[in-house]
Amino acid sequence: SPSDPHLVERARAAKEKLGSKVFVLGHHYQRDEVIQFADVTGDSFKLARDAAARPEAEYIVFCGVHFMAESADILTSDDQKVVLPDLAAGCSMADMATAEQVAECWDVLTEAGVAEQVVPVSYMNSSADIKAFTGKHGGTICTSSNAEKALNWAFEQGEKVLFLPDQHLGRNTAVRDLGMSLDDCVLYNPHKPNGGLTVEQLRNAKMILWRGHCSVHGRFSLESVEDVRARIPGVNVLVHPECKHEVVSAADYVGSTEYIIKALEAAPAGSKWAIGTELNLVRRLANRFAPEGKEIVFLDKTVCFCSTMNRIDLPHLVWTLESLAEGNLVNRIEVDRETEQFAKLALERMLALP
Ligand code: 13P
Ligand code: SF4
To answer: Which positions does UniProt annotate for [4Fe-4S] cluster binding (predicted)?
Structure first.
């Protein structure tokens, strides 16, 4: 628990011993007991930039999930070591697009005669392999805080976008921010022959959405929004763009974790908010802003934590820091050179977006 004095003391001592050799990054969805030891906290985009801005740190301890640690490894120098405190901290969404499936999809697009018009845009929440595919085919990475810019950029390069792997972020951004219609989007199902699409559908589509989703955000429903509005009159509904289109359409505000925090910082005293994102963050914000008279509730009580984010706990962090302090490099995340080269291209295109 966050208050286990023994573990807190050990984490503090190991971190002190390591000094500037270690830099600890914490995603907003991490537990409080872990966040208290983060040198910086942020959303996926901010953390990718922050990781790249610490060339003096020998160890980057990434308290987040596997794809974030991979991205940090890609963006940092070869002699910097990125460490994930629990190797089982994956992401179910990232796992929904494998390199083989995406290569097969590209073959389908090639056979349909549309591949030359397609620019891939991959959400940060994807493996390094998918990022490399994206870089190789002239595409960019995006996060939930720059998806609109990334899509605008992509439509300057080509007529169609293949959006991987989160169908919801892709659809929400295309429809809400770029003013497309739902009919401009088709859903590519990697488990069906030809993605379950006809050649004509592929030729007519502007947005080809990969059939992936976040298992946490996918559980918020239109009913969650209607219920909270009935329960709390005047409530502002603020959700993450990984939520379904119907949820995002019914919400008042939509944005990344960093956006959610800024919106609540700027909210007036007495305002009421229902937040549709991961529970660790919502609880932390509810506690932080309660003294200012801002009432913050979780959008749907039946939705729970992101189980993989939660794998990073204080015992894992203590073990990691103590191992590093004793000179044992544990749980290193290292992307191979060829993958890194192409994935970096795609990540750098994102970092160069206006
Ligand atoms: P952001 O921090 O970019 O909003 O991403 C949310 C998320 O699901 C990370 O796994
Ligand atoms: Fe993946 Fe969703 Fe968890 Fe983020 S919240 S790490 S997208 S499963």
So the answer is: 91, 214, 306
